Amino acid sequence: MAIKVAFFNRRRYFFNAWELKLSVLVLDRDGVINFDSDSYIKSVAEWVPIEGSIEAIAKFSRAGFRVVIITNQSGLARGLLKESTLQDIHWKLESKVESLGGKIDGVFFCPHHPKENCECRKPKTGLLKKAEHFLQVSLKNSFFVGDSYSDLQCAVNFGLRPILVRSGKGSKTELRLQQEREDEVLQIKPGSLPNADFKVLDTAIYDDLAHFSRSVLF
């Protein structure tokens, strides 16, 4: 399986995937891999994968990507589930991926309540730092696939390429991006050049994780 040689972001910069030497795929969990819930995912039974997501993860893994999951799980701090239950959920996820010949190289989660103002809850980058240390490889320029605005912010804050999927909260996030892009256009001065650094507004958008995998991998 090969990586497609190119894709474009909204500013029309050209990226050659071979030159980028992409080796790590970073994924949010709820809303990207499995269906999300405003009541939180509190049990193995409530964890239901989105169609095509498991196959997409396995496909990336078989193509040579190391796959890590970065997820906020404040349900732990809220007393809605135990860490042992969270581990069982992730075991189910990993088992499904392995059954298709893939592998998840690490799952990193923030257990804190938003009010705790910790360093690991997205959009802060503490979990990415842990993942980078664990893998012993730089995550810079890697894809970060998420459905929430905080996922995109986290990606940009750590030098990753933000990818939005419309599953989960993604459609609402897309509307926010569209509005911010319109506002940005209004603010650009005549003759000014776009900032070449990664920005949330540079996010590429796909229907879901399966759609993204088909667009990047043969």
Task: Give the structure's gist in a few sentences.
The chain is of the alpha/beta class and 218 residues long. 34% of the residues lie in helices and 16% in strands.
Question: Features of this protein?
Answer:
two-stranded antiparallel ribbon, disordered N terminus, alpha/beta, Rossmann fold, 8 strands, 218 residues, 7 helices
Structure description:
The chain has 218 residues and is of the alpha/beta class. It has one domain: HAD superfamily/HAD-like (Rossmann fold, 3-Layer(aba) Sandwich). It is built from 7 helices and 8 strands, in the order ββαβαβαβαβαβαβα. The chain has a 6-stranded parallel sheet with strand order 5-4-3-6-7-8. Helix 2 crosses helix 3 (83-98). The longest helix is centred in the last third of the chain and has 18 residues, at 170-187. It is globular, with a radius of gyration of 17 Å. The N and C termini lie close together (6 Å). Residues 2-20 and 186-197 have low confidence and may be disordered.
Give the SSE map:
Elements: E1 6-8, E2 14-16, H1 17-20, E3 24-27, H2 53-62, E4 66-72, H3 83-98, E5 106-110, H4 126-135, E6 143-146, H5 149-157, E7 161-165, H6 170-187, E8 204-206, H7 209-216
Parallel strand pairs: 3-4, 3-6, 4-5, 6-7, 7-8
Antiparallel strand pairs: 1-2
